[in-house]
Write a structure and sequence with these properties.
27% strand, alpha+beta, eight-stranded mixed sheet, globular, helicase activity, nucleotide-binding, 4 helices, Helicase
């Protein structure tokens, strides 16, 4: 059964859970992973919880074009299409766990970006949004820049159009 439009998906199985937010933060520090202010805000929010139990999740990485949007798409469009394809939003804690599991991320571009655009080489985790406030981070993305691994939070409104080459990670729904 073909699940997605024609493209090369990158699937990974990662282990999440079993760590408190403090333990997760310490592991990130031990790996010299940097956080931006938005990532710190996500970590400090009471709605960002971690599972006490370890479990495995299968993730699928794809571009906006892979989702069938040749002109780009908004977050609601992206999330709706993913759901149609049997993909789920990830628990918020997938971001830090995935960052710890993906230490060999290729270097991203250091060029200046227009405000509100995903950096080249970054991977956005499609996750549950814990606040509808436009000034509160919507989730995490992974980036490596100048040799430094980052777990960064991002802000985006529903009307923002993501570029066709932007990368997202979703969780594969069980049974697919």
């Amino acid at each position: 059964m073909k699940m997605y439009p024609d493209f090369q998906a990158i699937s990974k199985t990662i282990e999440i859970g079993g760590l408190t937010k403090l333990q997760l933060t310490r592991k990130l520090q031990q790996q010299s992973i940097s956080l931006n202010e938005y990532a710190e805000r996500l970590f400090s929010n009471d709605k960002f919880t971690t599972s006490k139990t370890k479990y495995n999740l299968k993730t699928v990485e794809l571009t906006i074009r892979n989702l069938g949007f040749p002109e780009g798409a908004t977050m609601p469009q992206i999330f709706n299409r993913a759901e149609e394809l049997g993909l789920d939003l990830c628990p918020l804690e997938v971001g830090p766990h995935l960052r710890l599991a993906y230490l060999n991320q290729p270097e991203g571009s250091t060029g200046n970006l227009p405000r509100g655009q995903a950096p080249s080489g970054s991977i956005t985790i499609a996750s549950e949004i814990i606040s509808e406030d436009d000034d509160f981070p919507k989730g995490f993305y992974l980036r490596k820049i100048n040799g430094v691994l980052w777990l960064r939070g991002y802000i985006a409104e529903d009307l923002h159009v993501w570029k066709t080459e932007d990368h997202f990670i979703f969780c594969q729904r069980k049974g697919y």
